[in-house]
């Protein structure tokens, strides 16, 4: 080895050592990001691989720049914490994780800090994960966001592979661009909150459900274990996440079975009409439904009385001292109906009250476009890949209903509506592709950035992810 090469290797080692000393997580982020980019493009044609790689690198670079800007230009509240945050919830998460880390290291902490580690409020497995991460690399109140970026982009890669096999190159590329660069999703995926982990686990669980149905029988038990593992993680991650996932998968699988053929659809329709009445009139079903509505109404009223731009869904008599447990079935139906309307329409341009809501307004217009294009994509998707389409639609529908009836604050509504956005975005990307194919066949062709025609698989064809 020549002296010049030896000197270059030594210099590179010194630089890497300094960087690792300053921020170990940054180097791991670069290495893991490179692995993600390689994995995302490993089976793609060369031109398409370059496009997808550029999209992923750009998305990670934008988010990393946001974290760097927060570190360099933010103003911490030094009365409480010496680091900057995008949102107050991040501060709570990071502090609690650092306290958990201190306990694992055997360090002494104050009594209130000890109680904070074990309190039920805000309890989530995400805290344990970022605490363990900082146990490995040291306190990293900024670098944990880099970990979240990797989680989110990893979920995007999984979703891209599912959509590409189901619908083709153009819808997959468009849905990936939507997922990675929609402003609100960019912001939430760069925070130290559990949204990124939730997205990764949900999309992996949906992928496991697809594999459980489509893999050869000898591999289905392994896919089913992955499905159960995903549901198990969701149960520890946030309240309601596992219920939404299970209900969404059941609805999706039922819809996929019912839409396999006109005969299946007819039989399912007749069975639904025959069974719906007796089931809905059963006292136990009505009692369980009212209990679920009561719980949602209590969460809704809690959001209404928080700071920010709140809105009301209940009849006015149920705000104040009258308890929601006295709600009549008619009032419950009105409450649920208003919740569904709110999650679809709010915040309307006429409801804008603050500068932040005015800034969000263009994205709300994008949301309306997504809602317009998604039904078109749903119809087209049923012809291309009924299972994937129904799982996407089922999960998105269940998530939107749950968010609609549990929310009462515009900020919370927008944040939680993002649970359904990746899957509605995939359906709307297909819908836009179909519309372009009718208006300008060259633009709407299933050929992606590689310019080579890539037809989606026939409906019902086994397509492992």
Task: Give the low-pLDDT segments.
Answer: 445-464
Let me know the average pLDDT: 86
The counted number of beta strands is: 0
SSE pattern, N- to C-terminal: HHHHHHHHHHHHHHHHHHH
Strand content: under 5%
> Can you give the helix content as a percent range?
over 70%
Distance between the termini: 45 Å
Compute the number of structural domains.
2
- Biggest pleated-sheet summary: none
The SS-based structural class is: mainly alpha
Helix tally equals 19
User: What is the 3D shape?
Assistant: globular
Radius of gyration based on Cα positions: 24 Å
Topology summary:
Blueprint: H1 3-22, H2 24-41, H3 46-73, H4 88-104, H5 111-118, H6 125-137, H7 144-167, H8 169-181, H9 183-189, H10 195-214, H11 220-237, H12 241-258, H13 262-281, H14 283-304, H15 329-345, H16 355-384, H17 386-406, H18 410-417, H19 421-439
Structural description of this entry:
With 465 residues, this protein is mainly α. It folds into two domains: 26-246, no CATH class; 282-439, no CATH class. 73% of the residues lie in helices and 0% in strands. The chain contains 19 helices and no strands. α15 crosses α17 (386-406). The longest helix is centred in the last third of the chain and has 30 residues, at 355-384. The radius of gyration is 24 Å and the shape is globular.
């Amino acid at each position: 080895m020549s002296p010049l090469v030896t000197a270059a290797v030594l210099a590179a080692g010194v630089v890497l050592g300094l960087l690792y000393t300053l921020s170990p997580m940054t180097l791991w982020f670069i290495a893991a990001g490179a692995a993600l980019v390689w994995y995302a493009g490993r089976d793609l044609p060369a031109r398409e691989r370059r496009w997808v790689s550029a999209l992923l690198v750009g998305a990670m670079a934008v988010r990393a720049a946001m974290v760097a800007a927060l570190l360099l230009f933010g103003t911490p509240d030094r009365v409480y914490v010496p680091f900057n945050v995008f949102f107050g919830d991040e501060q709570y998460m990071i502090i609690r994780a650092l306290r958990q880390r201190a306990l694992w290291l055997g360090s002494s902490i104050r009594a209130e800090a000890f109680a904070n580690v074990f309190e039920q409020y805000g309890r989530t497995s995400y805290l344990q994960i970022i605490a363990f991460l900082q146990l490995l690399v040291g306190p990293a109140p900024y670098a944990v966001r880099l970990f979240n970026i990797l989680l989110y982009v990893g979920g995007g890669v999984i979703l891209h592979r599912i959509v590409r096999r189901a619908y083709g190159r153009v819808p997959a590329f468009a849905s990936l661009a939507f997922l990675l660069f929609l402003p609100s999703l960019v912001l939430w995926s760069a925070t130290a909150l559990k949204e990124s982990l939730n997205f990764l686990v949900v999309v992996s669980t949906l992928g496991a459900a697809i594999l459980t149905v489509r893999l050869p029988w000898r591999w289905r038990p392994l896919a089913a274990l992955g499905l159960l593992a995903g549901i198990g993680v969701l149960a520890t991650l946030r309240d309601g996440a596992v219920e939404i996932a299970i209900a969404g998968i059941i609805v999706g699988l039922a819809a996929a079975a019912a839409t396999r053929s006109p005969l299946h659809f007819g039989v399912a329709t007749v069975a639904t009409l025959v069974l719906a009445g007796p089931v809905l009139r059963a006292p136990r079903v009505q009692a369980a439904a009212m209990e679920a509505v009561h719980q949602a109404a209590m969460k809704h009223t809690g959001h209404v009385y928080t700071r920010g731009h709140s809105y009301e869904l209940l009849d006015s008599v149920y705000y104040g001292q009258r308890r929601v447990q006295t709600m009549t079935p008619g009032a419950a139906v009105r409450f649920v109906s208003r919740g569904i309307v709110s999650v679809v329409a709010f915040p309307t341009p006429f409801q804008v009250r603050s500068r932040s809501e005015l800034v969000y307004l263009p994205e709300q217009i994008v949301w309306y476009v997504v809602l317009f294009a998604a039904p078109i994509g749903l119809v087209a998707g049923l012809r291309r890949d009924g299972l994937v389409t129904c799982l996407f639609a089922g999960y998105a529908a269940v998530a939107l209903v749950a968010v609609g009836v549990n929310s009462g604050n515009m900020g919370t509504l927008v944040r939680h509506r993002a649970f359904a956005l990746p899957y509605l975005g995939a359906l709307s990307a297909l819908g836009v592709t179909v519309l372009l194919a009718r208006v300008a066949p060259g633009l709407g062709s299933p050929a992606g950035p590689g310019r080579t025609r890539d037809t989606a698989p026939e409906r019902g064809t086994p397509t492992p992810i």
